[in-house]
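Sample A.
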Amino acid sequence: MFKRSEEGGTTDEEILNVLRRSDEDVLGTSEIAEFLEVDGAQTRNRLNDLHDEDRVGTRKIGNTRIWVLGPEEPATVVHPEIASIQRVCRELSEIGRMVAICGAGAFVVGGVLLIAYLAVAIGEVSLGIVSAGKLAEIGLGLLAAGGVVSFLGGAVMASAYGIEGLAKRRNHTIS
């Protein structure tokens, strides 16, 4: 879950923790490399990867590239394993959100089919393609399935949120 360098040494979170521990708002590549006791080119490559993931921000002042924590990154030191748990929870929460949206879509389609069924049953509309009974059957099925899927997506989101909160509290006790 947390990436290590090719040599198996420094994790992303260890690099970010250098920025978190610093008394300065920004650090140069060489300062970060020196603290980690890692080659400057390797540090720059890893920082560029973190920048691509929006975990750090950067700009160039003269010949020096400076780095800051990304806006979504916590300002306090994060244990690497806790960070992995938090990242997975955020991903699960996003998946849960998408599942809930898909379920809501199925629910809406089911409702539309039931409205079509009512129009056919009242006799105001005639459908030669499908029977009124089949429309009701499909509509009710989609309503039920959509409701269940939306509920499950919400449950995944809530669980991920709760686990992420526990991980944050746990991080404060081990940092």
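Sample B, a different protein:
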Amino acid sequence: MTDYFEMFKAFYESLDPGIQHIFLGILGLFVLLIIVQIVEKYVIWRRKLKIKRYMTQLADTSVSMTPEAFLALRRASFGGRGRPQYASRYNFTGVYILYNEDRDMYYVGQAKKVLDRVAGHFEGRGNGHIFADYEHGDHFTIRAIALSNSGFTSIDALERHFIDYYDSFEHGYNRNRGNR
């Protein structure tokens, strides 16, 4: 390390004093660019960590979120156009519970890729009544339960349990009592 420093010092001292100032300016810019790159990588790392934490908590039912918050996290992509959405890495098999706070109505559904399926409901590719109420301005919350964390061995049984629990067939959006 000392050899490199001595080489740099000898090179710098061999420069004309006017060039030394220019060289120091260029060196300062180079160091600043490196710092900016490090900060940018850190910010992206923190955003990825936040998305992972929220999606994991959603699967563990320890958090509920609004469709707007869910869709914002879900759409996050690091790497530009055509890159897969980061949250898709955390898709899981399980059930999801959509609650319309304004109408006090539930919908319970199941999916092998819960995150994709939930997004579909709020993007017009799911239950039409939910989408219509969402577009109308009703307020929803989303909860999800991963099959692996549920204590159930069948996704159908897990879905039926929550349809019964929330009475979402008689007084909600569900059109049947679940898959048999």
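Observation for Sample B: Residues 17-59 form the longest helix (43 residues).
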